[in-house]
What does this fold into?
Amino acid sequence: MGGLCPVRNHVGVEVAILSRAVVTYIWADRSLPWPSRRPNAVRAEFPDQADDLIRRVQDVIQSAQDVRPTDDLAETGDLVVAVVRAKFPQLSEEVLQAIGNLYAYSWR
It folds into this structure.
């Protein structure tokens, strides 16, 4: 995954692994055109770390739970991205956009 370096974040999980897990959780194998919550995709890709990673992924995603949707879904997605970026600056733009898409899609 481009742009990610294998440094550890504040909770001890490599950023690259956490980032991949977030994208996997939201998009799985990308066979569906919409974002969703897919913990089984994380279990399949990271069988030995699945339970811990799923908890961490959910924590990252839930960090934007206080954002309220606006009439403009793109603006809402941007607000989610900004909130998550402020809390987890080490995550890639791909991860942030996936989370923004997940929230915007769920509010549409």
About this structure: The helical segments are 15-27, 39-45, 50-62, 73-87, 93-107. Residues 15-107 form one domain. Confidence is low (pLDDT under 50) at residues 1-7.
